[in-house]
Amino acid sequence: MTLPPRLVPLLEQFDFARERLVNRLNGPLMDSGNGTDVRVGPITDAEYLWEPVPHCWSVRRRESGPGARATVLTGTGEWGRDAAPHPHPEPAPFTTIAWRLSHLVEMFVLRTDHTVGSHRLTRDDFQSRGDAASAVADFERSTADWRTALVGLTDADLDTVGLSTYPHGGDAEEAFVDVVWWMNQELLHHGAEIALLRDLHRGGGGGR
To answer: Is residue 208 part of a domain?
Structure first.
């Protein structure tokens, strides 16, 4: 199947951002940003759950309850992600790698379902992970599923408003090409945040 021409650069950007983040999480080599490879080990559970400042939002065992300024642990299963209803706390809580990765995976899982799946999944159905290896595996799987959904699109699909019925955003009012763009920028900016937190932990911040 021939890809719509305007999808090609978005897909190339997605592939680049996905591969870069996977390499930063798994190693053994990651791109330093200037084309130089840096050796790095797989992310550990300590890094994944590291709270570099007081009162972080993170992923927690449900039995422990939500963290500071959070009112709920979202999702299902043993672990949940700190959250609060609108209006969100101000200033915004600092979030751990675990929180950011869970957030990314949830978006990819739910938007894929609401584009080419059952159109029924909600945040209540999503399962956060308490260990790094499972979270990274979920990230790889969910982004692969999203990519499969994208390569099946037609040019008309990209212009279709409400093609995605994702219930936690403006998808119902947006052409699908804008949803694709939005997901790319979510991956790019949260991926950069996760990479920086790994750098800080490796640089000695994990000893706090």
So the answer is: no
Q: Which of 161, 152, 154 is nearest to 112 (CA)?
A: 152
**Which CATH number characterizes residue 92's domain?**
1.20.120
What is the maximal distance between C-alpha atoms in the chain? Answer: 52
**What is the reported pTM?**
0.94
* Tally of domains within the chain: 1
Closest to 9 (Cα-Cα) out of 142, 104, 150: 150
How far is it, in rounded angstroms, from Cα 93 to Cα 89?
Answer: 7
> Which phi and psi (to 5°) does residue 70 adopt?
-90, 150
Distance, CA of 33 to CA of 181 (rounded, Å): 22
Phi, psi at 201, each rounded to 5°: -65, -45
Measured distance between the N- and C-terminal CA atoms of the chain, rounded to whole angstroms: 52
Question: What is the tens place of the pLDDT at every residue in 160-205?
Answer: 999 999 998 899 999 999 999 999 999 999 999 999 999 999 888 7
Instruction: Confirm if 70 and 57 have CB atoms less than 8 A apart.
Output: yes
Distance between CA 14 and CA 20 in Å, rounded? 10
Domain assignment present for residue 46? The answer is: yes
Q: Is residue 1 part of a domain?
A: no
Per residue in 65-111, pLDDT tens? 999 999 999 999 999 999 999 888 999 999 999 999 999 999 999 99
Q: Identify the domain containing residue 28 by its residue range.
A: 7-203
